[in-house]
Amino acid sequence: MAHFPKAYKLEDKAKVKLELYAMLDQRLAPIIEQPQTYPAILFQMLYVNFETLGFVANYPQQKDKVISDTIGQVTKGEIPLLLQWDKRWGYGQYGDAFLGATGCGPTALTMVIAGLTSRTDITPYTVAQYAQKHNYYVNGIGSSWDLISEGGSAFGVKAHVMGTDKGSIYLRLKQGYPIICSMGKGVFTTNGHYIVLSGIEKGKIKVKDPNSIIRSNVLWDFETFDDQIEACWYFSKK
Prior knowledge:
Layout: H1 12-24, H2 28-33, H3 40-48, H4 53-57, H5 59-62, E1 93-94, E2 97-98, H6 99-102, H7 104-117, H8 124-133, E3 137-138, E4 142-143, H9 145-150, E5 157-162, H10 166-174, E6 179-183, E7 193-201, E8 204-208, H11 213-216, E9 219-220, E10 229-237
Antiparallel strand pairs: 1-2, 3-4, 5-10, 6-7, 6-10, 7-8, 8-9
Helix pairs in contact: 7-8
């Protein structure tokens, strides 16, 4: 069984969980045994979301690399699922870390841009660079709300402030508008996070979570996360 070096500083509960995970996936063993090779924030990523293991494992070889200037094919009128830790852009620098760890805001906004404009040349890294240039990133915190409320204008979409109640959200989704929500601690995050609400199916909400394929494949009851919503914006094409 792989173990962290005794001197390595990480919460005990995180160490135990990741060491147990290493018994299930051999890719994790060398990461645990040589943790100094990886930024501490990567272990936090793994602790809260094991889906990121492949991204974490490849970090030493891919650090700072951005290998795509396109998000790939999109279907007109549909919000695509994009992940902040996608290998195509996730290793690119963003603020005081890298997009895979801190890029939920740019990635959520990119999904909306792609869905409304069908542009494929705007990637999360494109939006992240724009955010940094215009001071929309706050070190130690992440993307500011201003990126969501103002930043899309440069890429052909317009944000509209809206209520966070069920009636307002269902109304805008039924009208065909995608919504970005700033989320507090709860089912989507242990700190802060942005998600996209993309529609309604069987009376439940379709979510595009830039940090999770699993959560994006689930239909959500509004009451599951309503008390965690801090702010919402619905989007239209300019």
